[in-house]
Amino acid sequence: MRLLTPGSKLHQAWSDFVVALYAPASQDFNSLYWLYRLFYALLDTIIPCRDDSRRKHINGFATRFRPLIPSVGITLILLCLSSYFTTFRNIAVIMKGKSETLHTSIVVWLGINILSHYFYCINASPGIVISPNANISGAKRNDDVQSRVKINEEKKRINLYNLHYTMKISIEDSTDNSVWYHPMPNDTFCQKCEIDRPARSHHCRICKVCVLEYDHHCPWINGCVGYNNYRNFVLLIFYIMIGCWYGAYMLAFDFVYVMREYFALHGFKLMGPKYGTGLLDLPPPWTLLKEYRIKGRIDDDVVLRAIFPFLLFISMIMFVFLLDHLLSISRGYTTLEKKTRPDRNDVLNPFDLGIRKNFERVFGTNLINVFIPPPFQTTQRGSCNNYVHTKL
Hints:
Distance between the termini: 65 Å
Strand order of the largest sheet: 1-10
C-alpha cells in the first residue's frame, strides 16, 4: 500500500505541510496543527473511515502491531539510559564534583534490573494451563504464545502449583452458607479451552489460553501476567519507578535553572515563546532532525527539558501502579480477583494468609533476591504449604 498516493488525504496534507514549512519566516507556522493534521491523515489512510468496517480495521491493525509494543518499551528504556552517559553524566555528576563511580554504578544497576525483569516478563511463560494428556489443545491459540510454550515445563509447573497451592487448602465449615468465598478454592472447567484448570486460573481472550493466577494482560510485554512472572512484573514496576525518581532527583535543579534561563532569554508564554509546542517549548521533530544533521548532536538543554518531565511523569504512573499491586498482594488477591470481588460484608479470601506471608508467597523469604537481577537469582517464588481459615 502506497501511503503517499497522489490524490489521497495524506498526500495532500504532506504537500501542504512542505509548502508551509518552506514559507517565508514572516508567516506563522503552527507545529501542533500540522502534527494533528498529518496524524489524522495517516490514520484515515491506514484505517479507512467506513462505519461498518472501522472496528474490523482497528482490530486487524492492533493484532499486526501488538508484538512491536515491547520494542517501543525497550527503546524508551535504552534512550533514558543512554542519555545519562551522553549528556547527564557530565551535567549532573562530573561538573558538580560528585562521585562518577558511585552514580554510574547506581545507573548501571538500575538499568540491568529494569531490562532483565522486562526481558523475563516478555519471554517467560506466565504459567499456562495445559491438559496432562494433550498438547496445546482446545480453542485456537495465539501464535506468539504458542511459540513460547514448553509443554513439559508447563506440566511440571502445574503439578508444583497443585501440590503447594491447591491440594493442601483446608477450609473449616466450608458448607456454612453464611460465608462467601472469593476466589473459590475449587478447580474449574474452561469452556473455551475445554480443560480442567486449577483454582484461580482464568482464560485470556487475547492470548486464548488459561493462565495460573491470571492477573491481567499487559500490552507492554505482549502477554499475560500470571503466577510465573507476576513477581518479575511487580519488580519491573518498582525499578522503573526508582530509576525515574533517581533521574528526576539528579536533574531537578538543572531543569529549574535551564527553564529560568530560557524564559529570561525568550520571554514567558504558556504555549511556548519560540516554537509554540507547549510550556516546555520543545522543538518539533523536524527541527531536531535538522539540528542533529548540522551539529551531530542535540543541545543538552533540549534533552534536559524533554527527559526530566518524562521521568517525573513515568515515576508518578509507576507509583500508582505499584501501590495498587502491593495492596492486592497484601490482601491475597490478583488484580482480576480484586476487581471481581463481590460487594458483600461476608466475603472471605481462602488464599489470604496475612500480610507477611502474602508478600513471602510472591517475593520469597530471602529479600536479597529482590535486589538481584533474574539471571543471578537462585530461588523462585515463595511457597506457603497450607491455607487454613476458621469460621467467621
